[in-house]
Amino acid sequence: MLQRDTLNSELSIFQKIKEMDYTLLICIILLSIISLLVMYSTDGGEILFHTKSHFSKLAVFFPLMIFIAFFNIRYWHTFAYLFYFLIILLLLYVSFFGLKSSGSQRWMDLYLFVLQPSELMKIAIILCLAKYYHRIKIENVNSLTSIILVLSIIIIPIIFIISQPDLGTSVLIAMSGLIILWLGGVKVKYFFYSFITFLISLPFVISFLKPYQKLRILTFLDPDRDPLGAGYQIIQSKIAIGSGGLEGKGFLKGTQSYLDFLPEKHTDFIFTLFSEEFGFIGSVGLLILYTIIIFRIIRIGVLSRSNFSKLFCFGFAFSIFIYIVVNLSMVLGLLPIVGSPLPIMSYGGSSMLATMIGFGIVLSAKINRKQTIA
Amino acid sequence: MIKENLGIRKSDIINRRMFIIGAAKIIIFTGIVVRLFSLQINENKKYLTLSDKNRIREWKLPPTRGNIVDYFGNIIAGNLKVYQLHIIPEQVENFNYLIVRLKTLLNLSDKKIQKIVNLKNKLKPWDSIIVSENLSWSQFLKINNYLYDLVGVKPVMTISRNYPFSEMYTHVLGYVSQPNEEEILENEIIKERFVPGMKIGKLGLEKTLENQLIGTNAIQRYEVNAYGKRINQLEYQKGLQGKKIRLTVDTEVQKLSAQLLSNKAGSISVMDIYTGDIIAMYSSPSYDPNLFLFGISQDEWQLIRNNPLKPLINKTLSGLYSPGSTIKPIVALSALENNIINPNFKVKCTGKTELYGQTFHCWKEKGHGFVSLNNAMKQSCDTYFYEIARLLGVDRLNVTAKKFGLGEKVLGEYFDNEKRGLFPNTNWKKNNLGRGWVLGETLITGIGQGYTQTTPLQLCLMTAQIANGGYKIKPKIIVNDDPLTLEAAKNSMELQSLQKPDTRLFNDPKNIKIVQEAMFSSTNEQFGTSYRSRIDDPKYQFAGKTGTSQVKRISKRERELDLELEQIPYKDRDHALYVAYGPYKNPRYALSIIVEHGGSGSKAAAPMAKELFKLIIDRDELRDKQSNFENINI
């Protein structure tokens, strides 16, 4: 008992600084710097709105991450469900009073910036399920009530988000949730059966899709069917990436973005611009940076003593991974276009806020890795 | 402890399952790298090309037409800098204000203003609107003075066709103007090089030599953004000016021709009798081709169109006239060649001849008495030619006339408005009019009336071929790459006639000589019809034949009245014709003159020949010096 008390006792501030994962921190700083440079390039080599705004978000959220890192992970465990319900409430609020933009209603105006609660749900769902699987007895993992409960935890926010409508975020949240189920020990055969069911129901799902969503899938299958309309984005994106070559066109010299051929270059297509200017070498470099971050997070999970920390780290690492994969596959023409930002790189406050909170919790898990959570 | 155990087992599951995902992540990331590799390394070229296609756009500029110069290198169709006024809508602060300012500065019409406003609504904001295609220098200065107040206006300097001798060469050169859709589609070269504002040849040599004159487009390569807006110029590729064309014409002679025919309807053609070079070719009245460059105004067009002297018709090539007495040298030659007559053959002229109850009058009511060939030509006795035509028959006459180029196009390949004319024979009448030939028609054909229709250039060629001793020449208006010198032309003419018998137009050179002498008498001996226009100086001395071609049948009453020219309505007056060659001793040039409704050839046409020969022969030496002139620097 004595030993456990010492383990659970608060570390001093120096110990915390000492225990900080500096590799991860440096990688995050590097990524932030790269994202600023790329944002500067999207502004045409000037410090304009996007660069300034991105910088100010980093300036707020990076300290927030450090702050969260010094905050004991135990509290995240304590307030995980509350956090989840809070986000559900925000989603509910947004679905009634949210701001509308280009046909969807996802945002709420917080005066300082516009918040997209569905982005925060990416973290909340991991926290919530991590707590659930941390607490549940292993015998009960595959019980019917448990499965139904966790599926409802996943499905409730998804219903809100899909009705915004925002298919991309819904899919990403579902995948982040499911991965915790997998890690928590849900039987492989359940995954297998649901996968088969999913395949069978796919045609019905497609029939429920909105016309623009169907169009995106058709466009993905054949971008040239409407090169100036629906296929335009993906064609221009491939041209930008392909023309970058081995070494890229050089910083601030990406003609595709500079001459406005790239749509949404600040947000979902930020990688396209990066890849055009820095080429294959730069792209692989960025991918390596992301890989280091992901494996560093996994390592923290492995080192963590509590299952909550483990589940959160693994879940968060996976969600970062899946965002990167979906985003890159989309801009490389491997997946249909679904709105999905590239973590930290893409312009957008909510996504960055969620990612920084996630990093903060991971760093806190590292600092408090020896702690058990009741 | 149980809890602890379970906890350990749970973390085992988590770690094991994490490991599986980790492996999957590596595989997927590798897949993405492979995709990146295939796009950026394998297909880099393809996408680089596509990217350039996206961002680089070419703008073609109108090509600069080749200059056309006369024999001495004077530019007769050149290019001139013109000042234009463009508006770039996206730079305009206040469009309405600008329009009002421009309206007062340039005196623009309301119609023009409406046009500009319509264009503005149609075009993209960065496409320029051409307000004025051709500003005068003073307008250009004015605009430049007020430029601070005219935001969005751009004075532009560009190049336009220019005809420095204005109406002098219109019927030779034609003019250029904006092409219509059909013209663009018909000509592959125009289609390829067309840009708005480009002008193409509509008539004359400008039209027929279009493909040589046109030149190639200058190309501006711009980087454009996704909306097509030009960002910056990457490259400027100069276009090649069209080929320079050198003509055989002499501007001085052309000028004199225009002067002589001023206020008259008619035509003057001058030809080198050996090389076939056309030295002058003027159809009067003419009009200013510069008017068509920027769109002719309705008023100006109506003025040209409704002019009773018909400036739009190129009389030299498309005007068809009865040759009148100018045909007589051919009739005489044909009769001699066919051994119908000899030079001593005489006919008694009483002023008229009766044939099957029809009376055929000689122009001289009292008659010429007994006339020989030489005398008949000299005094242009109609009775004599009625008689020899009757003896000869129209079919034999037709053969000779055809040989000398009557009824055939002279420059057909260069002028699509050239007419063939007509020299009749019995078959022709049967086939075309369905009736048999009447002997009376042979008689009037013998004095150049009736069905015969000739162009002034045909008469000039006919005269040239009599003058050069009866050899066929190929008239030309464009100096070949290898221009013939006089000696070479003379030599090749005789040489060629040995190889190609049909270029020799006679059987016996004596006959040609007889006709030449008769033409000499006509001009240089007393009682000759053009005796008053003669030049005694052997350097300039020329031989010719007058002609007076009736426009309508002369009634008996009119014959008795014998009205003065001024008393006859303009439309009914005879055409005056004259053909001649000179210098007589060593002939070099032939000409034909037609003055529509000018009255008699001896009074209206022959005096012009005197003026012309003085100038032409004075310039003879100069012309010979130029014959090997190949590169004319302008």
Report on this model:
The complex is a heterodimer of chains A (374) and B (634). Chain A has 374 residues and is an all-alpha fold. Chain A is globular. Chain A has 16 helices and 3 strands. Chain A has one domain (13-367). Chain A has a 3-stranded antiparallel sheet, with helices on one face. Chain B has 634 residues and is α+β, with helices and mostly antiparallel strands. Chain B folds into 2 domains: 59-246, Penicillin-binding protein 2a (Domain 2); 251-626, Beta-lactamase (3-Layer(aba) Sandwich). Chain B is 41% helix and 17% strand. Chain B has 25 helices and 19 strands. In chain B, strands 2, 3, 4, 5 and 10 form a 5-stranded mixed sheet that branches. In chain B, α14 (328-337) packs antiparallel against α22 (509-524), α15 (373-379) crosses α22 (509-524) and α16 (382-392) crosses α19. The radius of gyration of chain B is 37 Å and the shape is elongated. Chain B starts with a helix and ends in an 8-residue tail after the last helix. Mean pLDDT of chain B is 88; it is low at 1-7. Chains A and B meet through α9, α12, α14 and α15 of A and α1 and α2 of B.
Tell me the fraction of residues in β-strands of chain B, as a range. 15-25%
CATH topology name of the largest domain in chain B, in short, is: Beta-lactamase
Give the N-terminus to C-terminus distance of chain A in angstroms: 13 Å
Radius of gyration of chain B: 37 Å
Question: What is the share of helical residues of chain B?
Answer: 40-55%
Helix tally of chain A? 16
Oligomer: heterodimer
When the domains of chain B are counted, the total is 2
Strand content of chain A: under 5%
How would you sum up the major sheet of chain A? 3 strands, antiparallel
Largest interface: A-B, 46 and 38 residues
What's the helix count of chain B?
Answer: 25
Q: How would you classify the helix and strand content of chain A by structural class?
A: mainly alpha
